[in-house]
Hints:
Layout: H1 18-26, H2 44-57, H3 61-67, H4 73-100, H5 102-131
Amino acid sequence: MSKSDEDENAIIRITDAPEVIMRKFKRAVTDSEAVVCFDEANKPGISNLMTIYSSITGKTMNEIEAEFAGKGYGDFKVAVGEAVVEELRPLQTRFKELSEDKAYIDGIIKANAEKANYIATKTLRKVQKKVGFPQIIR
């Protein structure tokens, strides 16, 4: 998983559906060894997944290695995917609630439009003064 990768399967978006997230993790590139152990130099794919899993669960690399000892990458990828899905669930729920609240969205748009207009008008007045345009009184 990489935010700089152009491959859509290498990016997890906050708005991705749980089944899409799971599919992306199941397709994550790893090596053919099928041993879950952290080694950035020789196993960058699995090490990246371990870092993601560690950041969500709070487990150390040694704990993750012990948890998945004797298991293959398939089991590990599913666990990482499920952890990410659960981590994103509250954000996705809140995003859905807010995006369906048209009054809230309209209020934000109106407040930001007023703020932008104020800043733009102030900037325009400064520019007009610097270039010698007469001030327009409103």
